[in-house]
Amino acid sequence: MEHQESPFAQLCAEAWNDDEFRFDIKAQDIAVDLSRAVAESGLSRAQLAETLGWKPSRISRVLGSGSNLTIRTIHQITNALGLDFDVVLRRPEQQRPAQPWEYRDLLCDVGQLHQLATQHVVQTKALLDTARQLNRRSWKNAQTFSGITGGTRYTALPSAAQH
Are residues 72 and 21 in the same domain? Predict the structure, then answer.
């Protein structure tokens, strides 16, 4: 039996094969990154427009739609935000470099993971200590029980119901 792609999968494949679609996605990715950079800077869009001498509607158009951004426009925005930008060329299967806020988020995530791991190590040590103590107590009880029965070996301790 031959596997057929779903209509949705076929539609997605067709879209990703369309150069205009891929261009629109790239433009939107850049607009999203610029919008995040504005948000990270603490400036409002109105303040950025004032800094650049632009109308607020132009800022909305540039950051909202990912319209055909020029290198000059990207430079002006990043410069006003105190940032620089680079064009990184890579193969499609290679991961894109992280943005500055993504590094911060990643470091925060790594810090939280380390904290959780440390907590789990402490809890695991406590559980192992408790297990050791219970095992020692069980062993002592088994030896005591063995002494009472005249050295007969039992594979299991008697249950509470047998007492």
Answer: yes
